[in-house]
Amino acid sequence: KGVNIMSIENKIDQAKGAVKEGLGKVSGDKKTEFEGAVEKVAAKVKEVGESVKESVEGAAEGLKNAVSKDK
Questions:
Q1: What percent of the chain has pLDDT over 90?
Q2: Is the pLDDT assigned to residue 20 strictly greater than 90?
Q3: What element of type H or E holds 11?
């Protein structure tokens, strides 16, 4: 399986969010801390959604192949 560019982008977005959250904590800026946390979680949710989509597509392909063999 090849490198999933979207997954890499999501990991980068998670890291950016974590850095922003950390900077907010260190500086005492609650708004920046909150924004970073939201960005981190949003990237993780997107990554999980893509993983689920890939799993469903894989299952559908497997089912399609199984049905084709039965004919």
A1: 51
A2: yes
A3: helix 5-27
Which amino acid is it at 51? S
Are the C-beta atoms of residues 43 and 14 closer than 8 Å to each other? Answer: yes
- Token pair for residue 57? 């597509």
Alpha-carbon dihedral 27, 29, 34, 36, rounded to 10 degrees: -40
pLDDT at residue 1 above 50? no
Instruction: Specify the residue for token string 């490198």.
Output: 3
Residue 29 DSSP class: -
Collapsing DSSP to helix, strand or coil, 16 comes out as helix
39's tokens: 């960005």
Look at residue 71 in the predicted model and tell me its pLDDT.
60
The residue written with tokens 């708004």 in the block is 31
Give the separation between CA 47 and CA 1, rounded to whole angstroms: 17
Mean pLDDT, the chain, whole residue set:
88
